Amino acid sequence: MKNEDGFNFLEFPSKSGKADALIIFLHGHSNHPEMFTEIAAGLQKEWPNADVLVVRGPEPVHAPQDRKNNLHVPDVDDLYTWYKSGTKPSDGLELALSHMFNRVPVVDELNKFADAQLKKRGLKDDNLVLYGFSLGGAIVVQMATRRPDKCAAVVAHSSPVFPIMKAKSKPDMMLLMGDQDHFFYTTDKGVKKPGKLKRAFDKAMSTISVHYEASLKRLKRAGFPTTGVLVNGLHHTMNEESFQHTVTFLKNHLKGP
After folding, report:
1. 48, 76 in Cβ contact below 8 A?
2. What is the pTM of this model?
3. What is the full DSSP assignment across 202-238?
4. Buried/exposed code over 38-69 (b: 16+ C-beta within 10 A; e: otherwise)
């Protein structure tokens, strides 16, 4: 794993050695880049002249071994997230407000990372794709809205979208989710035992829905060209069908091989 410009990441370099595109992928809460190597390889198969970076969140979650085993990454040191969530009720409110007003500190740090990586490759924002899963998807949406120049495309997979505050740019976005998602689920009904982070969001943001339909409407009302996709039978994960939807969307924004 490389460490540059403030972050650790797995790099999948372009086949030619000189990239004409940069795809930055952010994982979800309590995940690890090693979980998404097949996604990176699949992207590179479609765009062999792109550099793909799977970035690791800066905050370890001190995951037990059985959790790492269940996610099929038993040999990694820990699982990671994008910020500390805390345990007090006020922590949940502070976290929700930071999302509502697009003030999650890691977003600016990630944009500095993206800028530095683009500069090293001699690329511009129209060569950049931001792609995130779950919490990583919420983060890439906020990254894109804070960038002065419009990036090529944004993909938020199984992700909530919070209110958009004064977007500096409005790139094309795809919001993609499974209709059986148990975490950032499609409706308010029929959900059992949401996770700790989801409960904190729901309690602090009881009047603001972050479900699929509300998130999609929020993007469109804010003026983002948005494609919404629901994958039948998909839970809070990624599969071949959802990946193919991503490829189809990105083919309109990145040159193929």
Report:
1. no
2. 0.87
3. HHHTTTS--SHHHHHHHHHHTT--EEEEEETT--SS-
4. ebbebbbebbebbbbbbbbbbbebebeeeebe
CA 160 to CA 113: how far, in whole Å?
23
- pLDDT digits 0-9 by tens, 38-56: 999 999 999 999 999 999 9
Rounded CA separation 29/238 (Å): 14
- Taking the C-alpha atoms of residue 153 and residue 133, their distance in angstroms, rounded to an integer, is 15
Retrieve residue 169's tokens: 């740019």
Domain boundaries, the chain: 2-250
**Which residues sit opposite 94 in a β-bridge?**
none
Angle, nearest 10°, between helix axes 89-100 and 196-204?
70
CA separation, residue 118 to residues 106, 124, 127, 128 (Å): 18, 6, 8, 8
Neighbour tally for 208: CB within 10 Å: 16
Answer for the pair 56, 7: CB distance below 8 angstroms, yes or no.
yes
Q: Top-level CATH class of 2-250? A: alpha beta
H or E element in which residue 23 lies? strand 21-26
Three-state DSSP state, 242: helix
pLDDT one-digit tens code per residue, 124-141: 999 999 999 999 999 999
Total residues found in the chain within this entry: 257
Write the CB contacts of 3 (distance below 8 Å, at least 6 apart in sequence): 9
